[in-house]
Specification:
With 427 residues, the chain is an all-alpha fold. It has one domain: MFS general substrate transporter like domains (Growth Hormone, Chain: A). Helices cover 78% and strands 0% of the residues. It contains 19 helices and no strands. One of its GO terms (cellular component) is plasma membrane. It is found in: Cell membrane. It comes from Paenibacillus contaminans.
């Protein structure tokens, strides 16, 4: 457990410890029911690549509701209650998706899943703003980077255990039994998750001075550095969605990789992320998030391009290399983008800044898996090598070019003339 300053009271210590429990359980739940095995479940239900892409897009487009959530917080500032209700609907409705094959006729499986997944995604996104701001207020600023590093490490451990165990289990049962057990365990995790979320303190929230006004909504858009950066990140997330989010589909449906190797690959991703989160966290103390993101973007693009290594080396070796690079780059992306949003937002306007960020990334991110899924449906008659890795390599190359040109212009930190003269004077 992280050591906090002496003046930190015992309630805050207990709350931060409870937040670690919440992170662990939430990660187990998410990797069981919304992780790489969700693709397998959708294939079991009979989904096509286009339908899988559409379903993967739903949580992202539902991020648009966070603006409504931020406004609602200004009128009803009880963040604890909003988070508890929203996440309860999300967790238990997602668990109920496992009942679809047992309750509905087969031709209804995908339509019913789409409806349920849309509702639970809406609920989860609506709860994200109050929960994120509540969590941010809970963690002292002076230890936030270190605490987040520990939290991300813990979630990496949880993901590793969950993904590896679930993949081993699914390969040893038929699909009906395997997914039934997956959702049963997921339901139990949902109960535990809501218990620990219920133990968060109900910290007071001070509404913005602007209240519910258009001026309040437009505040983030007047911050040119923030809005240009968020627009680039949004487009980048769209590219990630058309590639990385469909890795599991490509492995299971095109390359015919078994669930055990799917689990091993994603476990490696989690393990590498554990180490990478710690390293990126330490680097973020020394350098700004903007500067470090200039390293993260190219690494992320290379991770996608390396999928083409299967043309030269065995698939297991390719997966090890890809998911190693992916673990390093995605850990940095997740941590540094969050730090960037937090550091560029005034404390009182944090909800609306986060809402604009989540809405824009969600809007652009929605099209990523959707476009990717439609592309994979379109190229079904193309040569097998292009389906397995050709399309991914092409998109990865475009991402690399953008990371070395556009990203550098937006995120490059230029020294002000006064800073330069001060440095010259000190010499």
């Amino acid at each position: 457990m992280i050591t906090l300053p002496g003046q930190t009271n015992s309630l805050q210590r207990k709350s931060l410890k409870n937040a670690h429990y919440e992170a662990f359980i939430s990660t187990v739940f998410a990797n069981l029911l919304q992780g790489p095995y969700l693709t397998g479940y959708l294939l079991y239900l009979g989904a096509t690549a286009g339908q899988i892409g559409l379903i993967m897009s739903i949580p992202l487009v539902m991020n648009a509701v966070v603006i409504a959530s931020a406004y609602f917080m200004e009128k009803y500032p009880n963040r604890y209650r909003i988070s508890l209700i929203g996440y309860s609907i999300h967790r238990f409705l997602l668990s109920a998706c496992g009942l679809i094959p047992f309750v509905f006729p087969q031709e209804w499986w995908i339509p019913v899943f789409l409806i349920m997944y849309s509702i639970l995604s809406f609920s989860g996104s609506f709860a994200s703003v109050p929960f994120t701001t509540l969590f941010t207020d809970l963690v002292p600023t002076q230890v936030r980077a270190k605490y987040l590093g520990q939290r991300f490490t813990l979630t990496g451990i949880a993901a590793s255990i969950t993904i590896l165990t679930a993949g081993w289990w699914l390969d040893r049962l038929n699909h009906t039994e395997g997914f039934a057990w997956l959702f049963i365990v997921g339901f139990l995790m949902a109960i535990l998750n809501m218990i620990v979320i219920g133990r968060y303190p109900n910290l007071p929230y001070t509404p913005s001075e602007n209240g519910l006004s258009l001026q309040h909504l437009l505040k983030p858009f007047r911050n040119s550095t923030f809005i240009k950066s968020v627009l680039f990140v949004s487009i980048w997330i769209m590219a990630q969605g058309s590639t990385i989010s469909l890795f599991s589909y490509v492995m299971l449906d095109i390359m015919k990789v078994n669930y055990e190797w799917l689990g091993i690959s994603n476990t490696l991703l989690a393990v590498i992320s554990i180490v990478a989160f710690s390293i990126w966290g330490k680097l973020s103390i020394k350098w700004s998030a903007q500067k470090l993101l200039l390293w993260v973007f190219p690494l992320n693009a290379v991770s996608v391009m390396l999928w083409g290594l299967q043309a030269f080396i065995p698939v297991p070796f390719m997966l090890i290399i890809v998911y190693t690079f992916l673990g390093v780059s995605m850990a940095g992306f997740g941590l540094l983008v969050f730090n960037f949003v937090v550091s560029n937002a005034p404390k009182k306007d944090m909800p609306i800044y986060y809402a604009v960020y989540a809405s824009l990334t969600g809007l652009f991110g929605f099209f990523g898996p959707l476009i990717g899924g439609l592309l994979f449906d379109y190229i079904k008659t193309w040569p097998l090598w292009y389906q397995e890795y050709g399309l991914l390599v092409c998109i990865g190359l475009l991402m690399l070019l953008a990371s070395l040109t556009i990203a550098f212009r937006i995120f490059h930190v230029r020294r002000t003339p006064s800073a330069a003269s001060d440095q010259h004077a000190s010499m």
